[in-house]
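Bit of a strange request maybe. I'm writing a small parser for structure token strings and I need a real example to test against, not something I typed by hand. Could someone generate the tokens for this chain?
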Amino acid sequence: MRQNGTNGFNKPPEISEAENMTIKRRDGTDMELRIVKPTTGGLVYGTARGQDNYLQALANALGLTAVSVEYRLAPEHPFPASQHDATDAALYAISADGEDKLGGPLRLFAGKSSGAYLAVWTAISLRDDHGVDTKATLAGLVCSYGTYDISYTPSLLRHKRNIIVGRESMFRLMDAAFPPEQVVNRKDASVSPLYADLKNLPPALFLCGTEDAVVDDSVFIGARWSLAGNKAEVKLVPKGFHAFSLIPTGEIQKEGVSEVISFALSVL
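Reply from user aminoacidic:
Good idea to test on real output. This should exercise your parser:
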């Protein structure tokens, strides 16, 4: 829907200079990566091509190549399909072939909304399931307005407004991605990163707006990240709503993007 500009979404612009490459998932099927290089001048919807302009701006500011993952979407592919895809992409990026093809070592995980959830989930999975020293491998995580407790935090349960994503729409999205009949215990650490062992993980930025329904998620995981002995920065942007750093909102958007760039530069 979003990629095609239907159902109320604007068709996102694509950058002609961006490249695509295909790697293999763990089940042998193909998965596309979108490569956005520096230039001289969420789990239910979205595509790897849908944020070219945003990724180009970050790539330019940081001097890094940005890689976006075409992970499978719910409800056709519920938990843990997208989680496995994100992890498989990360494993490829840290492999010798991946480092060669992508032009350098993996330095940052970054994501917004469901992408922030996947960034944290993947960092933990690399450590626990694949024996990767995530803290030594990654310079940091940049996580914007993510949901880290799939059983819901108080800010979401009490949320009344409906800007971009409201309480009821979030419930529907989570039920599609984590079907109740399949995911019985949403507080399980394999489902909700907030309840996982967070020791020995890289520095992380948890960015969120104060008007976001899931603001508690960033506050709570930031506290647990720090208590586990990791560097954590929680940045709450006044009046920011869900996806505020992507949407033209003047100074609020600029502040969000500035926080992302500032943190990334501080850990690189």
